[in-house]
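hi! just following up on the protien thing from before. the input was this:
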Amino acid sequence: MSEKFKNTPFQVKLPLFLGLAMAVGILIGANVFQASSNNPQSTAKSYLKYRDILSYIDRDYVDTVNIEELSDFAINKMLEKLDPHTAYIPAKEMDVARSYLEGDFDGIGVEFNIFKDTVFIVAPLSGGPSEAVGLQAGDKIIQVDKKNIAGVGITTQGVFEKLRGSKGTKVNLTIMRRNEKKPMDFVVTRNKIPTVSVETGYMVDNHTGYIKVSRFAANTYDEFKSTLVKLKKKGMDRLILDLRGNPGGYMDRATRMADEFISGNKKIVYTDGKGTKYDNETYAHVRGEFEEGPVIVLIDEGSASASEIVSGALQDNDRALIVGRRSFGKGLVQMPIPLNDGSELRLTISRYYTPSGRSIQKPYTEGSEDYEMDILNRFQHGEFFHPDSIKFNDSLKYKTAHGRIVYGGGGIMPDVFVARDTMELTNYLNELYSKNLVREFAINYYQDHKAELQKIPFEKFKATFEVTDKMLDEINKEAKSLKITYNDKEFKRSKNLLKNNIKAYIARSVYGPEGLYPIFHETDADFQQALKLFDQANKLSKGYVQLGINKFRVD
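and the predicted 3d structure came back as:
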């Protein structure tokens, strides 16, 4: 990860975004926790009962037990009685949970991957301490502080624990570099490493900008605005905002992003909790950088929480054309409450509603597995391929600012549905990705051809570089060594996508994220469809109201 972990491109991800979306949710600033005044006697009675039972177990139970572990288990079982997004995070897991949404962290600054039980550096982060000492893409980290980490079953969490540390501390790395016979030692001084949530922003053509936002973390709004300004200076007058697979994060970063598109003092979102303490209405209030011009927002089943705030606000205010598939459906707001042992309670304190009054939260029932299985069920029931399979309740019908019909009760339904493209997805391709073979091959190819690749301008690389059959044969040979059964029919089906992804990952090593996405997008059905829809998006931005497919009227 940055220290971040990546496997496959978003084109070939299976629809299993549930865990991340549930873990992150919507976060707002924590308040100092105060004892409840609603039912103090019952609260005190239950607390004393729990304390007594825990004390008896610790003192008198026949076997020795881990009281802290037992307590964590009891807390988690108690929270299961509430909603799917209220969560308890043990102290030992807080570093990783917090780093996902913090604006930066202390570490060595590498993106890594684990392949064949070995940690590979995918890329040293630009300007970071690893780049400064000369670590390179493709380097294998075999020892950290003279202790082996290769071949010992290390996990992503284990890598985090070894590479991260306080700013100014040093870590000794022993690496093996391709075409070098002996290990090489590096001393890296940890420093503050920025996390990046705007993965890329580039000009698709002379008019069209593209921005990919992967989450709503502390620095997301600042990253987004600087990218927006940069693209405007390059001539952007229409935009694709990609929120696919974005599980959410800080609510205020989402509302500030939406405000960049919405003029005047129109409503963006409102929340409703117990009593009035957590009730809030948020309106547009600044002169945004892109209040005019067509906008298309890409969403899918992995777009949750803060992503749904942005897409819902832009849809309800008729400011953007929403394209893709129905979003996740999370409309509950969590407040992070730090506990005295370093753990944290993320407690649902309100529901949020889009400007038209829609609750996007999908139904949940205590004890039912339907909520956890919802994304998989959508896939199996054909929703990713046929919009007619989605049934909305007429009682949850709402209208946008210009009178378009939208629905609540289970995610944001796009204005234009795009079926998931699975023609080239096969089990064989998924196995190649599950073993990290594609990324590993691309890194090694870059290492072997670095000098010549770095001389090629990106546009020339994009137009002329070809992944040859010989290169594919090498991957298939490596797959066989890993006991992946070759399937000729599936290989031929996936061949074009595989070639595209290899080329994109090689471009990532040479040119950074700006080289990755323009090549990925050549086989991205959602993106390609969006490029064809700017006529509709333009009419929407000028006050036309969509009546049906390609039918509009002026409001």
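Residues 1-33, 547-555 have pLDDT under 50 and may be disordered.
Residues 198-417 form a domain with the 2-enoyl-CoA Hydratase; Chain A, domain 1 fold (CATH 3.90.226.10).
cheers
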